[in-house]
Fold this protein.
Amino acid sequence: KSANPQWREQFDFHYFSDRKDMLDIEVWRKDNKKHEELLGTCQVDITALPTKQTNCLELPLEKHPGSLLMLIAVAPCTGVSISDLCVCPLGDPSERQQISQRYRIKNSFQDIKDIGFLQVKVLKAVDLLAADFAGKSDPFCVLELGNDSLQTHTVYKNLNPEWNKVFTFPIKDIHDVLEVTVFDEDGDKPPDFLGKVAIPLLSV
């Protein structure tokens, strides 16, 4: 019940050079669990923003009254990667040794925010739900840790997809939960939910 809401939320998006350069933003209003209304949209051209600084932007909503005030920073991405299984970042013994050295107990207080990182190998899924009329699905997998999100490619018309991808996340809170969700790609429509698993970091 506010025309001037303050969210004060921070989200980290991993921007890779092969992705589109526009950040799409939508503002929605909720009356109850079932009714939602779009209050406006706006876009930010990421390539036009200066890097390595925080940019304060006031963005008018298109075709609707109101505007959004946002702070957007474009900075080099450290500790985050997507790679094929054959070039796994921790597959190199010398790199494993460097990381072991970096997180030795005596180095604990050199960088308090550098808790560590999580490497996840997404191999395959088995016996997924058939979401299409032809008895198949077009599955892809989304990994979320805190406000970080990465995803695999889509394997079309397959209930036993193999992705064989390696994902690396920096850990910001040891109490976070890794959520792995499988969706069925459905063209221009929202993807269909095929299943989910949640893994607390403290259980690893």
Observations:
- The first helix runs from residue 93 to 102.
- The chain has a mean pLDDT of 85.
- The first strand starts at residue 22 and ends at 30.
- The radius of gyration is 20 Å.
